[in-house]
Predict the 3D structure of the following.
Amino acid sequence: MLVAAAVCPAPPLLVPEVAAGAAAELDGARTACSDALAVLAASRPDLLVVAGPAADGHLGPYPQGSRGTFHGFGVEARVRLGEGEEGPRLLPAPLAVGAWLLDRAGWGAAPVEGLGVAEDATAGECLRTGRELAAREARVALLVMGDGSACRTLKAPGYLDERAAAFDAAAARALGAADTEALAALDPRLAAELQAAGRAPWQVLAGAAEGADLDGRLLYEDAPYGVGYFVAAWS
């Protein structure tokens, strides 16, 4: 059963070594992520699953001990998903950011695994995956990595799309209220057009939280680079 969840943005810029001189711009997001992870630790889970968007070839489970790197972003920073033997595959970037957040928080509350979720997975597939995760242990926690739209400004990665602000506002409301029905109703096609990579992981969360009666709090909401970033805690 799902007992807690934290929702965090997944830009590698959260890692100060990657952000370099711009690191201070996301200090608020980092603080909010730390607060959300504290909620996870306080829930005393038997298992923590870090779920985030992944491309083909990076899907499926990642065992504890899986490693990630930010070499592709110009730095040598390396991370590991908890203690354990190194897995055969490197973590996709969103899961590597999640591993960095856990390491920063000194996570040791429960075993931890990773799950790469296909960005084009249907809502039904995501909901089923979430239900399966919640059934794995008596007390399951989720760290859900993913961003909102990438089309909030002219300089955003996806340029300006007038629909982006409304999409992000709806996602923020759902995340802040732990509204599983609203998350499940997010349109995968619109999310893809707006480059909202968090849609599929958020819908995994919606499936996992069905019937759990969790309360939500939105701890952070901003779009500093034209990309919607949200931090929420469910407990």
Residues 2-234 form a domain with the Protocatechuate 4,5-dioxygenase; Chain B fold (CATH 3.40.830.10). The radius of gyration is 16 Å. The first strand starts at residue 2 and ends at 8.
